[in-house]
Amino acid sequence: MSTQHIHQPIKPDDQAYSSTQSRMLIVLSVTALVMIAEIIGGLLANSLALLSDAGHMLTDILALGLSIIAMRFAQKPPTASKTFGFYRLEILAAFFNGILLLFISFYIFYEAYQRLVHPEEIKGLFMLVVAAIGLVANVVGIVILRKSALKNLNVKSAFFHMVGDTISSVGVIAGGLVILYTGWNLADSLIGIFIGMLILRGAYSLVRESIDIFLEATPKDIDVEKMLSDLHKIEGVKDIHHLHLWTITSGIYAMSAHVLIKDLLVSRSAEILRQIETLLQSKYNMEHTTIQFESEPCGDDVVKDVVS
Q1: What confidence score (pLDDT) does residue 14 get?
Q2: Domain harbouring 296, CATH code
């Protein structure tokens, strides 16, 4: 029995990280300006919807700031006590952002109920203009973060905040139009409930994905059976067991496994290891892999463990 390791240093793409952080700083600045505009506009228009949307943007600013801080920590090198580095801070930030989104959705439900019970007169035209400015700013933020959100869970959480703001702005505009032309103030409350439901759905998805990473679940975009099938096709591999797959942070996967091979020369086992490494890196984006070679079954390989 021998143990061999494929251990590449887990290091983020510094240029990509820097680009992502720059984009998030731009979005944060635009969001802060629009929030100030909505606070002023909400007070002048006597619009609870605008003030609520400004409060929503305040949580976005906090979330974006937390995400940027977490990403900077994630670039710190590993230490003796934290050998995987600080990548999980990104997931922790994403989790808390998801929880924050949950509270926002419940707050929207509460505010919508209050407006249904106690409707107030709103200056629809003023509300419409300010909400339109907010909508443009949110769309710009979504465009800036869209690509990064597909690769990074932390950015994805900030992206969901922007989507929530965009939906809120559309709702405020729709409510403003209805109030302006019909005087029916209750429309704002109904739109608020719809907005809250959409945000709640995104928050649930974000929290669930974060928890899966903390529980070291198998990455959802990896087909374990297909991976095992591909590994078994490598000449010299007789069996694979004690397979463990997990996510360190967004897009960075890890794996450990016992691989049963024939009793071969060291040079031949090194070739098998190289083929395993090439397959896992090129096809499954596996950044950190630990392989334990065995020439005899270790005694409990009858049951193949796929722990997720």
Answers
A1: 57
A2: 3.30.70.1350
